[in-house]
Amino acid sequence: MTATSSTGRQDTPQDTAPTAPETVTLTLIQAVTEALRGELRRDDRVVVFGEDVGARGGVFLATAGLQAEFGVRRVFDTPLAEAAIVGAAVGMAVRGLRPVAEIQFADYIGPGFDQLTSQAAKLRYRSGGQFSCPMVVRTPSGGGVKGGHHHSQSPEAYYCHTPGLKVVMPSTPYDAMGLLRTAIRGEDPVMFFEPKRLYRAAKGEVPTADFTVEFGRAAVRRTGTDLTIVGYGGVMPDAEKAADALAAEGVSVEVLDLRTLVPWDREAVLASVEKTGRAVLVSEAPRIGNFMGEVASRIGEEAFGSLLAPVMQVAGFDTPYPYAQDRVYLPGPARILNACVKALQY
Hints:
Shape: globular
Number of domains: 2
Distance between the termini: 37 Å
Enzyme class: oxidoreductase
Order of helices and strands: EHEHEHEHHEHEHEEEEHEEHEHEHH
GO molecular function: branched-chain 2-oxo acid dehydrogenase activity
Strand content: 15-25%
CATH topology of the largest domain: Rossmann fold
Radius of gyration: 20 Å
Structural class: alpha/beta
CATH architecture of the largest domain: 3-Layer(aba) Sandwich
Organism: Deinococcus aquiradiocola
Number of helices: 12
Domain Transketolase-like pyrimidine-binding: 26-201
CATH class of the largest domain: Alpha Beta
Cofactor: thiamine diphosphate
Largest sheet: 7 strands, mixed
Number of strands: 14
CATH superfamily of the largest domain: Thiamin diphosphate (ThDP)-binding fold, Pyr/PP domains
């Protein structure tokens, strides 16, 4: 059921949650924890592991309390060896488990890159469907915590470019819980990026009953007719702030949250842009090779006749992530608003 506020914002539609469920208020990281807890209880094939995820509960405490409840055979620490973590997950998945591996920061996935792109992603195709690889790699991603160039990057485009991997990045507690359940219950490897700056900043109502969120379905966060903003992950609160500023000036902005990048909801984006005639695409990854370039290309190919202005992109800069300049590097409300004004005045 979709609920619409007086501002035009909408709650997440098109999911499997029951009508008018009981809810609880959670932060995004609490939603991740509870999704993991629920799946560990539901399916004894689920195992959770990574660096410091056991007794400590992970560097951001996403797995706090899980080892105490489920024991060291199902929630356990690993060495500081990302290649081994990912490789072990592939082996577990092939042998019938449902591994959920945590990489402490998305920046550190590099040593496991070959395991992901050459093994996990290709296993179903290479085996002619005889094997699947139902594994999830969870990792904190993006900036906003002054972590610098080894703790703040947004590398999701690498994995979007690899057929066989699904790529997810929620921005709300509801989506974090529903999408993580879908990822764990699926049959394919999933890269599950968690925007760390929203871990405790994003709060929302989450149903207490079991529900999932379908991959490949964007959420309409706000309806509008004059311009479309498309984003995902950590940029979504800033996109909505820019939309609020424009609404105060009488501009009707539609805000779409992709939620998943592979697959991504091409139909929803095209329908919105065909309605509004203007698109501003927002992400915090560097501009070159940015996933939003694919979205812009599709809009240009399939909705060119509806465009009233060039497609605008607001992204991170093509530099290593700076230590103390989060507000400069990240596409905040001011940069998004500036792009929107350019599109409106074109």
